[in-house]
Design a protein that fits this description.
With 196 residues, the protein is of the alpha/beta class. Helix content is 45%, strand content 12%. The protein has a four-stranded parallel β-sheet. Helix 6 (142-160) packs antiparallel against helix 7. Residues 2-184 form the Iron-sulphur binding protein LdpA C-terminal domain.
């Protein structure tokens, strides 16, 4: 815990200006919750913003299959069952892909939340969310998103060589459709470019 405390303390006066403090961590077996609670106890005295726990089920995988997201979802399920989890929002990462939202919904763990613009309202509402069953309020797609957008970029480069996607609207539109198809499941909207 000393390296985390050193990092946190090293932020000094910058902490006053944060709107969100995000901590990324992999599943570490039985020590996961105690590590999270220890990190939160380091953060709490100077925490004047929202906090987010990024749960890395399968760090940096970028896998596309349905099975790849199981570790991420299993991490969320374990956390949901825990009674002594630290406050904050929870976001899945590592092993996330197009099947993640459906898997979370099957477990009853997916939630989207809307908050007022006032940050104090956000903090009080965030604290009240902690009394609910742990839900996942976000998904980081990282490697998977790079793979699906990378296909579009490789196709464009095979036709035109090294170029900017903005100079080729048909490829830009394809990339936007792919991206919206992915984040639309989290943001609760259907890709509006579907018919274009």
């Amino acid at each position: 815990m000393a390296p985390f405390k050193k990092l946190w303390d090293g932020l000094g006066n910058s902490l006053r200006h944060l709107k969100l403090a995000a901590v990324s961590l992999p599943y570490a077996g039985d020590s996961t919750l105690s590590s999270m609670n220890n990190m939160y106890s380091v953060m709490e005295p100077q925490l004047n913003c929202l906090n987010l726990w990024q749960l890395d089920g399968r760090p940096m995988s970028g896998d596309i299959g349905r099975g790849a997201t199981r570790e991420s979802i299993a991490f969320a399920v374990r956390l949901a069952a825990a009674k002594d989890k630290p406050p904050g929002f929870y976001q899945l990462a590592g092993g996330t892909n197009a099947h993640t939202v459906d898997g979370l919904k099957k477990e009853g763990l997916f939630q989207t939340a809307l908050f007022a613009d006032n940050s104090q309202d956000k903090i009080s509402k965030a604290s009240s969310l902690n009394s609910l069953r742990a839900s996942i309020c976000g998904i980081a797609y990282g490697g998977y998103a790079r793979k699906i957008i990378g296909r579009v970029l490789r196709s464009m480069q095979s036709q035109y060589g090294l170029t900017c996607i903005e100079d080729h609207p048909e490829h830009l539109l394809e990339a936007l459709k792919e991206a919206l198809g992915l984040v639309g499941t989290v943001k609760r909207y259907d890709p509006f470019l579907q018919d274009m």
